């Protein structure tokens, strides 16, 4: 672990996902402010190297084992079975969702169709806009986790590890929703050589979110909200990025915004190392790409197709062909290329 701290944490590559802490069988790691810290002597099991999304991940092997095959040379953003547009038909989801509500609808369907658990990003009830990882067991709880925060949710992988162990002991599965780095770490956990734990059987489907970067929470709330826009965090009920601007909406219907390009000073350090915009290792990848009220959905695995088809057949999602929005694929390709160009010399094999 000491060399991983030298090569990943101290160099600013660390995503702070917590996967290494979650799966350390000897409890020698704790999550500190800047990433994992070695608090006791490492016994060198090697698990931390295998799950770290910033340390030489063999993407082709992960794709073959998790998605059924490695990507073809012409697949610019990972293994793709199909791409389509979708939105929720669930009125409860549409009342609180970010864009098309596909993610919340999928998770609600999987929990109702279960039995299953879900690990999601939610918000603290004590402090405004403080992201918290949540282990969710009922469709109703999913509604409280809807929407985007544009900052990082700590301990997602710690919760995933706990939920997966519980799920495996009870013959359940754990649905996981995360950012690209968290999806990569979840795949690493799935592939750990520990059949007595059953990580692969306990985790999935994995739903990945499109992500260019996340922002430091303190900088977002203090520097942008209070400092530049004169808003208190408790006044804001929704955030959204549209056409290059980050919007903050208040309960009174007011909307204030800043240009995303002006927020480079509060981008989290680890994001600069990431080359994955569209959550290329997820079973299902979801984003909006500027669409109003619809999501772009990339189905990547048989498990992902099965979950999505189930929600459609249950009457919870409606779909449209991608061809109805010809600019979407162009935007996706541009953002994928932009994120890769911003992090030259990728440390991962195949990405």
Brief description of this entry?
By secondary structure, this protein is an alpha+beta fold. The chain is 33% helix and 21% strand. Residues 346-350 have low confidence and may be disordered.
The averaged pLDDT comes out at: 91
Order of H and E elements: HHEEHHEHHEEHHEHHEHEEEEEHEH
Strands ordered across the widest β-sheet: 5-4-6-7-11-12-3-13
Q: What is the count of distinct domains?
A: 2
Strand content: 15-25%
- Uncertain regions: pLDDT < 50 for 5+ in a row? 346-350
Determine the N-to-C terminus distance.
24 Å
Q: What is the overall silhouette?
A: globular
Q: Can you give the helix content as a percent range?
A: 25-40%
User: What's the story with the biggest beta sheet?
Assistant: 8 strands, mixed
Assign the structural class, choosing from mainly alpha, mainly beta, alpha/beta, alpha+beta, or little secondary structure: alpha+beta
Strand segment count: 13
Descriptive overview:
Helices cover 33% and strands 21% of the residues. Mean pLDDT is 91; it is low at 346-350. A hairpin with a 7-residue loop joins strand 11 (284-287) and strand 12. The strands form three sheets. Strands 5-4-6-7-11-12-3-13 form an eight-stranded mixed β-sheet, with helices on both faces. The chain has a three-stranded antiparallel β-sheet with strand order 8-9-10, with no helix packed on it. The protein is built from 13 helices and 13 strands. It has two domains: 2-214 and 268-342, no CATH class; 217-266, Nuclear Transport Factor 2, Chain: A, CATH 3.10.450. The chain is α+β, with helices and mostly antiparallel strands and 351 residues long. It has helices spanning 2-9, 19-23, 47-51, 59-66, 91-94, 102-113, 139-143, 156-169, 180-190, 199-202, 217-228, 302-313, 327-342; strands at residues 29-32, 35-38, 82-88, 116-123, 131-136, 173-178, 203-209, 236-242, 245-250, 255-259, 284-287, 295-299, 317-321. The longest helix is centred in the last third of the chain and has 16 residues, at 327-342. It is globular.
